[in-house]
Amino acid sequence: MSTRWDDNQPIYWQLRERTVAAIIDGTLAEGEALPSVRQVAVDFQVNPLTVSKAYQSLVDDNLVEKRRGVGMFVRSGARRQLLESEREHFLNEEWPRLAEKIRQLGLSLEELIELERKRRRESA
Hints:
The protein is mainly alpha-helical and 124 residues long. 63% of the residues lie in helices and 6% in strands.
């Protein structure tokens, strides 16, 4: 993982978002333990309290559970819950801006589909 931080967002939130992305893409499976607070703090050279705050936000959102003396684990159903909320966020927040930009640029659906097909062929 990259250790570059966006100065426009708190580091704890960026750590949280990296963990969310790992759950969504399956890097962190349901039932799997999250890396320890200490390990993440060392790996990313951040304060352990920052990591704890990120993990606590995941607990608060019912995505991760604490097991006393054992660690933190991805809850069953976390991936599905995240996919639903991320899709909703995309459709309600990001898509309207993208659709407007597409309209402003005069792009057609056919052009976009063809560009995506070409991109996929080139990356295969």
